[in-house]
Design a protein that fits this description.
alpha+beta, 22% strand, 1 helix, single chain, five-stranded antiparallel sheet
């Protein structure tokens, strides 16, 4: 998935229905979508976002801080 993919504009967290941020593989991990409000990461497998509530994983506090920095530095993907 690319940062300018139109699909990113309509994808939402299955728990709080808020926007998600793309974590690219070059951000130091696997491709995923991240919800900083709930500190949950959802994997993208073979280009398909896994957005079931049970697919998300809780991110530890130290990793959350790192991901917040990456999200802040990423180009805006929403209108």
């Amino acid at each position: 998935m690319k940062p300018d993919d139109p699909l990113l504009r309509i994808l939402a967290c299955p728990l709080d229905k808020g926007p998600l941020h793309l974590l690219a593989p070059d951000d130091g991990g696997e491709e995923a979508l991240y919800n900083p409000r709930l500190r949950r990461r959802y994997p993208i497998l073979d280009g398909i976002p896994q957005l079931l509530p049970s697919s998300g994983e809780q991110v530890p506090e130290n990793e959350h801080e790192t991901l917040l920095t990456l999200v802040a530095e990423a180009p805006e993907t929403r209108p």
